[in-house]
Structures are given as structure tokens and as C-alpha cells.
Amino acid sequence: MGIHLILQNITNYIQLDKTEADFFVSLLQLKTLKKRAYLLRQGDICRTENFITKGCLRVYSIDENGAEHIVMFGIENWWISDLYSFLTQVPADYFIEALEDSEILQITKENLERLYEKVPKFERFFRIILQNAFIAQQNRIREYLSSSAEERYLYFIERYPQIAQRISQKQLAAYLGITPVFLSMLRRKLVKK
Amino acid sequence: MGIHLILQNITNYIQLDKTEADFFVSLLQLKTLKKRAYLLRQGDICRTENFITKGCLRVYSIDENGAEHIVMFGIENWWISDLYSFLTQVPADYFIEALEDSEILQITKENLERLYEKVPKFERFFRIILQNAFIAQQNRIREYLSSSAEERYLYFIERYPQIAQRISQKQLAAYLGITPVFLSMLRRKLVKK
DNA sequence: TAATTTTATTAAACTAGTTTAATTTTTAAA
DNA sequence: TTTAAAAATTAAACTAGTTTAATAAAATTA
């Protein structure tokens, strides 16, 4: 099930023959996470790149005042990690926590290097993953510079309806950069219209 | 002068022998820009990666209301481009404009591919450039989620004093995501203290 | 050097978003 | 199945940041 999903995800970008696909699959490890379990903690080194086959997770940091700020959510068919920590093997800035019981397929940095050597076109695949992460961030910065909280909320539920339905308003507020109280007010105002 | 600067920038990350350095330099083109000239416009395809040897530039977009939002500044010794447009050769989302008379060294996408073939370690160098751009963006998102305009202003002038001195307050406000009026008020308040 | 345009300052009225606190609803645990 | 804990709602007082407009200062251009 999960294997099928990850292969389909990859073949959106690169073509694999049976041998290549089998070799790739042999490098993967399945991990299950209970709700509230951590895949990564701030200060740990992010040793794997992770593909979600089931569940929902969040990537967040905690600031000096103890407030949580969510930089991304991930659901089925998404890749999730602290990309910078993974690429450079420095301690992570972020926590990654399961918001539901989840299942992920993991590939370690070492196995990824072996994969690049044997099947170089995977370099292309992971470069595309990095580029997509980059552009998603760039769009988010632009959104912050140009949109109100209401506009950002409406954009999020339009763009990611399947995530919006699964997460609590508290989590969504921490993603949007507003208080849960204000999000509740926004929603009431929008419903009234 | 400029050649020396770019080689020094690169050898911070990878070692080059004379032949490799010479080949790299042979692929570069010098471009001079008068103040207010554009290196790139929204909708153009970003065909070069650009290293600044003199001057100061800004990368910005214009939203539906006509407001300008600056995503980065660049000065001597920095690389500047619309990285996503360059990598994928799709139309750019951003304008890149000289804020002072400037000089840049350019390498086209085609020449970069030739360089990767002849001197593969440059792949490493440009991957690091992409990673650094990625983390800078990530930090900026976190800053937005967790800091007030005053904190962001103080952080900017501490982190980039050499840029803060060269740009107008109007430009800095468009970077911080506040109005020039409010930036002026902040500064007065801070001076009084 | 004067004239024009752009940038910065100040003030006052306004709006978006926060804080605190009390109450209700939902979820999780025993 | 009840109890406890966490999340969501509401209201009121507050604060950070915007808007508009007038004036001053600085930078460009003729």
C-alpha cells in the first residue's frame, strides 16, 4: 500500500524500471507513530527523509516566549523533514510531531547516497523536492508581506482543504501566525456573511 | 577585481586548480547596471545566475494592490537571481532592480550545465547556494511568525548593518512588511530611549 | 543654482489583531 | 461512563500597525 504510493509519487518526476524500483524499496524502512509521538526534536540531527503514507504531522519551532510556530503540515503522499538539518547533518531547529496515528517510509542519508550512486536520476528527484520546498516557502513569505490574516486563512482552506479539515483551529492559528481567539472571531465573521 | 572576488567566494566551499578556475572564468560575462536599471522583470525568464561585484540590488514583487514587497537585498559578494525561475526556466515572479550603479558577473544556465559536466564539484557549490537561500527563507518565515516589527527592524540592522546604511527607509519598510510611516515612528521611539 | 520630485517626519483618527478571563464544547483518560 | 483536560467561543479592554494628510528635508534634474 505505502510502497505503491511512494513509487507513484516518484514516477511523477522520473521513470524507474523494475530493478531500480526494487533497489529503492529495499532501502526504505517503515515507521509507525502514535498520535503526539515525535519524529524529530529540536537539537536532534535529522537522519532520514520521510514520506508519509498515512496520518498527519506538523513541523514547528518554539520561540523564546514558549510560543509554537508551525512551518508546515504534512499528510499522505507528502515528504517531510527538517531539510536543512538532513542535508547538512547539523542539529535540527524544528520538532516534527504526529497529529494523528501515522505511518511513514524513511530513507537514511547514507542509503540516499548509495541510491544516488547506483541510480543517479534520483538526484533529479530530490533536487525537485528541494526546489518545491523552496518555492513553497517563497510563496509563504510573499503571502505574509501582502495579505491579512483573513486572506491567509481563506487561502489556506482553499488551497489545502484536506488538511484544514483534519487539524484543530489551535494548530491552524499557529500556522497562520495569529491567536486561536482571533481565528475563532474570523470564522464567526465569515460564517455570518 | 570582480574576478578575484568571485573566485574567493567559491573557494570558500570548493577547491579549484588553475585550469578549473580559468575555465569557470571564461564562462562569465560582466554586466553593468545604472541605478534603477532592471536585471530581471516579472514574467521574464531568469536566464543567468548573478554574482554582485559592486553595488546594491533588490528582489521584489508587486501585489494586486500595486504594493511592492522586497524578498531580498543583495550587495557585493552575494549571489542574486530568481532562483526558481532560473532552475526551472519558467517566467519570473520577481523584479530585480539596481538600487545603486552596480556590476555583476553572470553565468547562463547553458554555461552552468557545461561547467557541471567539466567540473562536477561546481554542483556541490551551487547546491550549497540553494541550501543557503532555503535556510534564509526559513528563518525569515520564523521571524515573521514570532517577532514584532520593532524586533524585526532591530534584527535587520544588527544582522545586515552594511545594507541598512545604504538603502532608504522606504525600501527597508517594504522588506520588513510595514509602512514607511510606521518605520519612522519606530525609529524615533528607539532613538528616544 | 533653482526647480521639481522623492523621501522622511509628525500627528490624529482608525483598524486588525492581542490579551485576559469566563463559559461552553469536545476529546481523552480512568 | 464519569471525570478530567484540552480546545473553542465570546466579550471587553487594549496595543501594534495603518491611513490620510500636511510639512520638512533630501536627492535629482534642468
Description:
The structure is a homodimer of 193-residue chains. Chain A has nine helices and eight strands. By secondary structure, chain A is of the alpha+beta class. The first copy, chain A, has a domain at 2-121: Jelly Rolls, CATH 2.60.120. Chain A has a four-stranded antiparallel sheet with strand order 1-8-3-6. In chain A, strands 2-7-4-5 form a four-stranded antiparallel sheet. The longest helix of chain A has 26 residues, at 121-146. Chain A is elongated and about 55 Å long. Chain A starts with a helix and ends with a helix.
Fold blueprint:
2 copies of one chain form a homodimer.
Chain A: H1 2-11, H2 18-26, E1 29-33, E2 38-40, E3 48-54, E4 56-62, E5 68-75, E6 79-80, H3 83-88, E7 95-98, E8 102-108, H4 109-118, H5 121-146, H6 149-159, H7 161-164, H8 169-176, H9 180-192
Antiparallel strand pairs in A: 1-8, 2-7, 3-6, 3-8, 4-5, 4-7
Chain A binds a DNA duplex (30 and 30 nucleotides) through helix 9.
